[in-house]
Fold this sequence. Notes:
The structure holds two protein chains of two kinds. Chain A has seven helices and no strands. By secondary structure, chain A is an all-alpha fold. In chain B, strand 1 (about 255) and strand 2 (about 265) form a beta hairpin. In chain B, strands 1-2 form a two-stranded antiparallel sheet. Chains A and B meet through helix 2, helix 4, helix 6 and helix 7 of A and helix 1, helix 2 and helix 3 of B.
Amino acid sequence: MTMIETDTSSVPARILQSPKHWRNRKAASHWRSGDEEFDASKFGMWLFLSTEVLLFAGIFCGYAVFRLLYPEAWANGSHYLDWRFGAANTAVLLLSSWTAANAVRLAQLDKQFWFKVNLVITIVCALLFLFIKLKFEYMLKLPAGKAPGTFFSYPMAHDPHEPLWWSLYYVGTGIHAFHVIIGAIIFAVVLWRAVRYQSYGPTQYTLVENSALYWHIVDLIWIFLFPLLYLIH
Amino acid sequence: MSQDTNTTANSNLDWDSNDPHGINAHDDDHHGHFIADWRMQVGVLLALLLFTALTVGFYNLEQWVETAFQITLPKWINIAGAMSIALVKGILVAAFFMQLRYDKALNTFVMLFCLFCVSLFLGFAMIDLDNRGWVEENKAVEIQYGGSGAMLNSAPADEAYSVTLGPKVNTAGMSLVHYARLHGNENEHGLLYYREKGKEAEFWAHFYEGHAKHRDLLDEHNFFDQMGFGHHVEASDANKSVPRHGLTPGLFSDVEPTADGHGSSHGSAHGSEPEAESHDDGH
């Protein structure tokens, strides 16, 4: 195996000699090559991502059906939401998607420091997204009675189907926020392994690639949830 | 196929008859993977942020036009504007950040097939919505754009949402409490109506009708029980879901057993004299 020429003089031997260091990791024995392992893993990730799209398709379909049936409730519903928080969250997710894509590129180029910096920014953006969601949306709306379904008690509602709107809003954004939490946890694992073992480099970055793909699909779904919930009325 | 088109590292020089496709010819350090150009990634990020600003600007422009010129724009403008920009953003993310543009076509195919399934899913749901009348004529009226769904006979779930939740008066922007103070008790549906002596039962009967599904949240002082309506909650319970006639007659009979041995009728509680004492004893 040819060593890839990079400066490793400042890396402690404990990390360089770890079996989890990217230079010391090899494809599992049942693969012909690391490339094949990578491609298969990525293909599996895409299959999983397609099931994620189908999961959210249920919510989009529910949105479409109920919007056609109860257009007044849906128009009122989107007016209850402040587009500024939705747009802020969109920008936060787009930025984190960029840093996730950066992290893949920097792992491919073995730029360990900036790779870790981009992972940290991605995680911080995920937490910022959740903070905005909870602090400025959920925690303002739920006490006001703008709650899903049977929990609805907002006294100034104008349409009897507004509880249905809030059900769809909380289920859609809630499942999405759940995905954001999962993504942040996965990136935290990647960051830990990168800090502790330098596990990811030019020949070994499958988990970085796949978690970035996962993060991009979370971003992609928000790209559609944002106009559907906040902008269309 | 000529060997020159093969992109693997060292297969163009020596052809191995045991490995004609060069599968084992890879070096471990060889990677034909696409490494994105950072300038391209920055450009895509800026484009995405620009499109976000564009869709928000389009939304605010519509709002401004509607208020400034006192018109109502057709809904398809709103939908087409927001969703077409979202589609462009989605394609940018998938093609460049997710690198579908540089990746194996198989991955793109997986996602396109998935989107095809989604379109079937959405499309058949829409066809179903539009053609309920073909199956059951009475559903043709309400299952339509702008329908309330309130006339559907066979939809118990829908009743949960046909409760009138909002204020029954137009307060013209002022708070309900302020409005009720201004109008005293003259509005029979007003907030302060129950303050009239002797009208409490009537008020709570009315309140109960309007808020049957939200009783737990709204009746925090348990007024329903005090006023004698405690046994008329319409929420689903075991009595309704399991027809156990004869096994537990106390749950079904019209006569409510009480502590002093006398029964009180269910039916008389609604809208007539409250029976607070007997119910309190019964529990």
